[in-house]
Design brief:
By secondary structure, the protein is mainly alpha-helical. Helices cover about 85% and strands about 0% of the residues. The chain is built from three helices and no strands. Helix 2 (about 95-105) packs antiparallel against helix 3. The radius of gyration is 49 Å and the shape is rod-shaped. The termini are far apart.
Length: about 130
């Protein structure tokens, strides 16, 4: 009976040992799979981080370029306003001058020097200019 009990205990111990070894082997496989997944995730995160850094760098470059272009645009707008004022200055005249300017605008374009000129128009224009002054 003692021998049967000992055999039963040894058989149970053997079964337990085999079961523990199988479980340990299964845990090692799972550990290997999880380690591989972890390494893959780390590689992917590094690649994503690199892409993000490149994107932020490009964003910074684009912002700087936009600021430079805005500055240049503002300068050109200021120059344009100054040129508009310069062009408008001759047209800003006292009340008596608009009549002369309107008459001068209504005059026909100058005739080439080879053709005869309308002497009366010139005299009339000069008279109006002299009377307005």
């Amino acid at each position: 009976m003692k021998q049967n009990i000992l055999k039963n205990i040894q058989a149970q111990d053997s079964e337990n040992l085999l079961r523990a070894q199988r479980e340990m082997e299964e845990l090692r496989k799972q550990n290997t799979i999880l380690t591989s997944r972890q390494e893959s995730i780390i590689r992917n995160l590094r690649a994503e981080t690199k892409v993000k850094m490149e994107l932020f760098s490009a964003l910074g470059d684009a912002r700087r370029q936009a600021e430079e272009l805005n500055h240049k645009l503002e300068q050109k707008c200021r120059e344009n306003e100054m040129l508009k004022q310069r062009v408008a200055e001759p047209w800003q005249c006292p009340r008596s001058r608009p009549l002369v300017l309107v008459y001068q605008l209504l005059l026909p374009p100058p005739i080439p020097s080879t053709a005869p000129t309308d002497f009366s128009q010139k005299i009339l224009a000069e008279l109006i200019i002299l009377t307005v002054r």
